[in-house]
Structures are given as structure tokens and as C-alpha cells.
## 1
Amino acid sequence: MKNFSTVGTRFALAALFAAASAASAAPLKCEFRPDAPDRHVVVKGDTLWDISGVFLQKPWCWPTVWGMNRDEIANPHWIYPGQIIWFDRATGRLRLGNQLGEGLNDPSTQKLEPRVRTEGLGKDAVPSIPPGVIEPFLTQPLIIEDDELKGAPRIIATQEGRVFLGKGDKAYVRGDLKDNSSFQVFRPGAPLKDPVTKQVIGYEAFYLGTLKLQTEAKPGSDVHTFTVATANQEMGKGDQLRAVPPTPMQNYVPHPPERAVDARVVAVYGGVTHAGQNQIVSINRGKLDGLDVGSVLQLYHAGRTVSDSTGQKSWFGREQQVKLPDEEVGSLFIFRTFKHISYGLIMQVTAPVEVGDVAKSPE
């Protein structure tokens, strides 16, 4: 097996990557693995992240070696089990085929560029990351920002004065339903504070279940009658409602953010202090800061500030304060974005991630 090491291929990669990241402040390093295979047969259970790691040292380089545009990054429903991904070493590109051939120079070998599949769109397509890990986070209102709570319908009374409601129980609700009939019920939790500014940037909401409208308020009244459709946790008086349409799994290709992002880890989901691989964290940057689904950030432990006892002291006799370099510890795949907050799944990690750690654009 040949290694990807020719000068010409490296120049090709550099050119491709420059085109794909024209908006970035500096070109990113994008190289194939020294042990990259000539081909990979896609099997059920593969993810784009896994396949990227077979060929590339950095999975977020995937769009570069395919020469993809933004539309293709956002709609990667073109890789299916049974297809073959070829490593074209001469051009430093990956190609997609539906059958095994004698070699990349054989014109009879079917080689396809990534494209949107027109029949059965998305069905059985290889996902970006394991969907089961993040599915509960796609439809539940887990982050509440700004004044989103203001004016939200709320439970004011329960059936027969019960303290908590269960499935099938009645709940009495006040508030503007805005022509919606199905609602999710949540209870605001602890505030999320920016680790840098210490300002509250949102609230993590506890998802309790769903309510279905039974009877809308009659003329002269503003009290609606609901029935509990599902109850994940106990809900009761004071809990709030929010109509949120289901959010489908967005299958973006792993890619760097469209502009430089420098974020901090705000919280580890579940209230713990440290996170490992396949755990979820929130960061203090969102869609208004240039993040979208599929954006990949590198995770770092923030370098400590130490006293340099070996250097020259100030005229006050104080030692100089020096910040140590940030230490890279892993990578973060952004799968849900709010205005100024995002959820990310830790993909790889060499040390536990904690609140205050740095998450920034790949270098």
C-alpha cells in the first residue's frame, strides 16, 4: 500500500483546501493518514466521522478532499452501505463508486463525485455521527435564551388539585396558544453563565413531557384544558409550555466553522463537572457567531497563568505572570445551535473536558 507523500499531491490538497476555506483567516492543515487505505467499502453502522477517520488525520477535512460546496456539506445524503470510497492518490481526492473495479485508471470503473441522491433521499444514508446519542436533544427545548420565557403558557391548576400530573391527567393552562394544540412542558433550571463574562446567557430547561389541547378556552375565559400525552418527569402547577415543531436529524458533513470561533465550555449536560467521549456539552457561541450543524471545534484545556520565578522581577519585586499554552484534548461536533449557545458531542478526547475549557476553530 502506498503512502500519501508526493509533493504534487500535497500541492493539490493545499489548493483545494484554500478554495474550501476562503473565508478563514488562515489555511488549515489537512493531510491524509500515512496508513490510509486505497479504498473503503461502506457498511451499515458507518458514520461520516468514522469514514473520514479512515482516510484523514482530521475528520473535518472531509469537504476539502471531496471539493464540496456549502450545499453539499449541508445535504450529504449520497453515501450508502455497499458503495466504495476510493483514495485517488494522484490527485489527493476521494471518489465514490458503486462497484469494484480493476483500478482508478480503468475507465470502466464507476467513479462518482458526492451528490444528492434523488431516489429514497436520506433513507439508509450514512449519518454524520451516531444519531442515537443526540436524538433526545433534537426536539426538546433544552436551552432557553433571552426573553423566550416571557408570556409562555403555564399550568395554573391540576386535575382534582393533584400535586403532580401523570399520563392522561388533565391540566388547566393560561396563556396565548397561538393556534397550537401540542406543547412540550418544561421547567426552567439553573442559569448558564458565560465563563468569561460571567453574564447569564441562557437557562437550561428540564423537559417534563407533552400536553395535548382538549378544550380551548370558552368566550369570557382564558383557561384552556389539556391532557397529558406523555410524562417523562412529574409536572405540575407553574410549569411552562412551548410549542416546538420536531427538528429532523440534520446530517451535515463535519466541517470547520465558516468563520473563526473562540468559545468556552459553559456546562456539561447532566450537571456533572467533567465529560468524556460521547458526552454532551454546551458552549457560549451559536448560530449568530458563525456555527451551524456539523461545525467541528478543537477542545483545549486553557493554559494556566503562572509566576516566572526564573525571569527578571519588576521594580516592585514581583515575578512576571506568564500564561501557559492551551493544551489540545479533543474535538467537538456541533449538532444543535441556538442564537448564542450550542450543543456539541465530544468525538475524541485525551483528557476529561470541564467547564471553562476552550473550544475553537481547527488550526
## 2
Amino acid sequence: MRSLPGVLGAAAPVHVAPMAGGPSTPALVSAAGRAGHLAQLAGGYLGADALAAQVAAVRSSGTGSFGVNLFVPAPVPIDDGVYEAYRAELEADAGRPLPPKHEDDDAWSDKVGLLLDDPVPVVSFTFGLPAASVVSEFRRRDVLTVQSVTSVPEARAAAERGVDVLLVQGEAAGGHSAVLDAAATPAPEPLQDLVRRVTAAVRLPVVAAGGLGTADAVRDQLDAGAAAVAVGTAVLRTDEVGTSATHRAALTDRAFDRTVVTRAFTGRPARSLANAFTRAHPDAPLGSPALHHLTRPIRSEAAAAGDPHRLHLWAGRGWRAATDGPVADALAALLP
């Protein structure tokens, strides 16, 4: 096992993964930090000003050791005709017009500039590889960089960019898969086997993630060579998380009995509780971020209305182990 550098290594070996779209609040990051665990803000879907406000909120709480995750622009083009066909399909279900096609880069340059001008201890990257020059600029500012990967080739490519740490995500993870090629399907491989293969191939420390909900599961990853783990679904019901009430309720509803990997909500593969939306659109096209913007009104309305069957119910395979209460208690229960 290769040790984690700096604040990553000083923290307890159970980190909190960044969860974009609401769950990763400043309160969550601060509470985890007070308990000795490293947590990250999720910069995805936020503008630079909103992200700056969240960073300031964490700092004002007295938490100095934390990170920020960014979505690296990795657009998945979608043909106009394919987009319009899927929009028509969803409009028939929704009973109202939905947005025209929209693409963006998630304010990448603005957020990189923000974090270079006002560095935080850790910056991590998902969906794509940042340019080596970007990684170098963060290193010049003593910022630790972490890259999400799902395979040995991705790990090697990340190492070549000069990152400090690999976040090795298994296929059981909830929410978006970190695959660099959105058309790929993560291999159905036990996470500890993937960790062993990556640590044998690349001389970088590893944080393991994906479907972890018990202390025994955490121990398996540490025994396989990971220096720490990161959990997301395991804390989705805790007091400080920003999970919607509709999503929280679904995580304990016995009517939801399995997870599926779906493109239906965002045009990228993501693991969700199976619901009416995932069943109705099993062959949804690739197309990110266009489909994220297309389905956002449906998802927002569903969350507000308490309708779990039109909402992205992100959940890893270990979702049954998620508990309520303070996040510090949930994380302590996972320590091996």
C-alpha cells in the first residue's frame, strides 16, 4: 500500500466522495472534517461564484482540510435528430415542452481559475483528464490532485498527466460512472481486484470507491492495497447531506429492490435505483451534458412533488447500509 500525501493521508481512511447536484453541502464537508475525515465539495453543475461561496462557507466553519471536485469537459455529442426524438419521447410522458438542445463545459475555465487564484488543499477530476499543464499549475500551488479512474489504462493515462492520487471507482458505485469513455461499460469486477490490478500497474497511491457500506467492505479494500476509501451512498441519508426528501425516502422504501446503470437521466452511465423512468427508457441515447439539461425540469419537479419514479435516485449497490443521523456517526461505523 502506498501512503497518501498531505491532508489526504492525515485524515481517517474513510473519505466522503463528492456528490454533485445537491448532496455535497458545505455542512457535510465541514462535519466530516470535524470528525477527522476528508470530504470534498462537488463543483459539478455549479457556476464559479456558487462554488466560491461554498468554499467560503467551509472555511468559515473552521474546516481547513477539504477538497473540491471538478467535471473535466468531456462532451458526448448527440445528433440533433436523436436529441429531438428523445425529447419528443419525454415530452409525451411529461405532457409539456422540454428544453431545446444545450451544450456547455460546466464553467470549467472559470472554476479552474477560481481554484488556482484561491487554492484549496485538494482538487479532484472526474469524466475526463485535465491537461498536464493544469495539473502542474495546481502542483505549483501545493494543491494535491486526484483523478477518478475505472480501469488500468485510465490509471496509466492519469499518471502520465502527473496527478498525485488515483480514485479507483468500481462498477458498484452509485451515481455517474467515472469512465473516461461514456460509451464504455465498467467491467463487473470486484473492487478489490481492480484495486490490486491498478496498484500493480501504477506507482501512485489509491483511494477505492464504489458500493462500500460496511467496515468489512472497507477493510477488504485496504487489504487489497488502497490507502483509503471514499463513500457516497453510505452518507446520503445523514443529517448534513443535501439529498432531497424524495430521494431519502426512496432509499428506505422496500418497493425499490435493485439498482441499474442508466443513461436515461443525463446521457452518461450512472447507477440508480430502478424506477419507472429507468424502465421506460432502457435504450436512452448517449449525450452529455445535453440530456442532463433536457431532463432537469422533470427531475426538479419530481423531487418537489415527492415522485420517486421520475427522479434520478442515485445509489450504489450497498444502498441498504445507508443510515440516518450525524455523518460523523455513519463514518465512524465504517472504520475498520
## 3
Amino acid sequence: MGDTEFVIEPGRQDVIMIRHFDAPPEVVFGAVTDPGLIPRWWGPRFLTTRVDRMEVRPCGRWRYVNVDARGREYFFGGVYHDVVPPERFVRTWEFEGAPGDVALETVTLTPEAGGTRYTAQSVHQSVESRDAIIRADGPRGGRESMDRLAELLAAH
């Protein structure tokens, strides 16, 4: 299984996450935009995920819920701004536990070496907001999500 690479440079507002998948962009795009598949790969393994809303179209809303072993719920959501299958989507991303701290995420899927290069750039409103995500171990959740997505794609 490949590794997930993170580009986290001091003093910048963005985080870039890169992963190679052994599947064509159409298949990867389908997996990351299918509400029935999101619970199978989104989030760390110790949480379950429920899709409350997923309208993959410009101005469409999305909302996912992570649930821990004690039943506590953590809500994430935003609005899709651009959707170009199977090349990219752009959406806002907000953890409802920190309202108003909205990031803009661009996911780009590029054909590469018999598979797909998945690049997600999340631009936060400030360096401090970005750094708070890093301190909260956001890259761990991203890495686990990408590992789970690779497992899902390999099974199809």
C-alpha cells in the first residue's frame, strides 16, 4: 500500500495531502463522491461515519457525522463550489465543533502511472487555524482515510 504524503510548511495557511491509488480517476472519483461508499473509508478507523447529506454539484451541501464508541457525534460539512468529474471538486470544509473556521478544499485527480494521483489542498483562513488542525492530529485522520480508501479501491 502506498504512503500518504503531507506538505505542511511553516507560516502557510494550507495543507496538501497526496496519495497514489491503483485505480483510474473515474473509479476514484466515484468512490469519493458516492454517499453509499463514504462510510467505508472517511475518517479514522476508530470512528464510524454517517452521511447526513451529500449533493455533489455546485452549490450542493454535504454533511458527515463521525460517531465514537461512546456514541458522541462530531459533525463536518460544507458546500460544493465546483465539480468536474472525474478531475476535481472544490468544497468548503468545516468542523461544526469550531464554527466559523472554514477551509476551502480542492481535490484533484490526475492520471498517473496506471492509476491516479489524488491531491487535496485545504486552505484555512489563517495560519493559526491550520496549525490547530495539525495539533489536533488532522494528518492522522487524513492518512487513515486514505489507507481505507486504498483498501476499498483494491477490493473493487
